Amino acid sequence: MAEDFELLRYITIGQYLPGESIVHRLDPAVKLLSAIIVILTVAFLNAYLPNITAFVLILGLVALSGVPIGYGLSGLRPAIWFIFALLILELLFSPVKGVVLWSYSFLHISQYSLRLTVTSLLRLIDFILLISVFTLTTRTNDVTRAMERVSKPLQYLKIPTRELALIMTIALRFVPTFAMEMERLMKAQASRGGGLTKVAKWNIVAQARARLPLVIPLFLIALRRAEDLVVAMESRGYVPNQKRTMYREYHLAVRDWVALAVVVVVSAGLILI
Amino acid sequence: MKLTTRKIVITAVLAAISILLGVTRLGYIPVPNVAGNATIMGVPVYIGAVLEGWPVGLILGFIFGLSSFLGATVPMFKDPIVSILPRLLIGITPYLAYIAVRKKNEILAYGLAGLVGSVSNTVFVVGAIILRGYFTFHQMLVVIPQAIAEAILSVILTVAVCAAWNRVQIGSGRSKISNVTD
Hints:
The complex is a heterodimer.
Chain A (H helix, E strand, L loop, with lengths): L21 H4 L2 H16 L4 H18 L3 H4 L7 H14 L6 E5 L2 E4 H26 L3 H11 L10 H31 L12 H32 L18 H19 L1
Antiparallel strand pairs in A: 1-2
Chain B lengths: L4 H19 L4 E3 L6 E3 L3 H10 L1 H18 L8 H4 L8 H10 L4 H26 L5 H4 L3 H28 L5 H5 L1
Antiparallel strand pairs in B: 1-2
Helix pairs in contact in B: 1-2, 1-3, 2-3, 2-6, 2-8, 3-5, 5-6, 6-8
């Protein structure tokens, strides 16, 4: 019962595994850029060989970073049966292309659907591991600064990257605050006999209706807090769209350039094989 | 794209709500089909677009897509082309719907923005799933009941929040400095 109200428990944003590995010590912007390059590369791999190679390389990266692999994959656990069902669906009902390996009335496993299933499973694990390695070895502040620095060239397209980084920083700062507000709202509803706990899980209409008295006040509380923050920021002299200095400066070391070069070469290799 | 302090902060708090609804699963309503969940995660995007204009909608759409990509446990949503790219547009369409009808009836315009946002989310994401070859068009037809549920919820939420918020605004004076500095 009590755990129904403990929203903060689910919030894993900003979790950081301290360590001294080479992955920890790389410049955050280099890590982010590398992660983006690898994710985009993996998203476009279709054949078996490049997918399996990428998977093995990513396992190597996880080992190098010192993140326990079970911990990295822990986000997968609640959804494991769902993923399993989905993969079966994909295996049996995808369009029939290539040699049919097995069929029973309307169910077919073809070479195409087998490849699609295997590659999408590998891709899912690749992505989860990559994202876990990045977020678990990088502090939240470094993540937002890295986003700002990686997107810097976009400033020439008049995209306000500094403000975007500020948005991310404020948003991440407010998530635990709003989680606490949400807990308060849920308890208030429950004490009046409402709330989510009494509602049958698959009763979609009831589930939806139970959410309205939680979500609408949450929005209004959030917007009111935003007003306060606007006043606070402006009274301290914040002016948007201006260049500003930072408390911490980053300098790229040789290892950062080497890491980036390795990532680019490996990604190009994966696309070419 | 000029951002005022107010736009930055409102985008940030709506993004925080979007992230919170995602990680606590409160933004998802369990539905037994391929997509797994009906979602009200898009609602902060539509509300941002209505209250502060399309740039805010665009940024919120990006953050929504990013959090959907990072938190996805379903293979097809671990694909940035399905989870991020279509979401860039869903902050823009509700804004267009809103300004088109705003002059006639404010409340109707909020509702239409919620509806258009939700429908464009469904259409763009399902379109991307089909284009990437995860499922065929006929397999994706099962999402229709869920799409209707999502549309109804986002209309209710968008109207409720925007109407309540704009009434509050009339009562209490709000900061105007940000409008002067740029």
